[in-house]
Amino acid sequence: MTGEPEPISAQARRALEQELADLREERRLVAGTLRDTTSVGDQADQADELQRADQLQRLDRRIEDIGERLDRADLAGPAPTDVVGVGSTVGVRFPDGSTESLQIGEVAEALDQPLVTADSPLGRALLGRRPGDTVHYDTPDGPATAVVVSIGTDGPS
Question: CATH number of the domain at 89-151, please?
Answer without folding.
Answer: 3.10.50.30
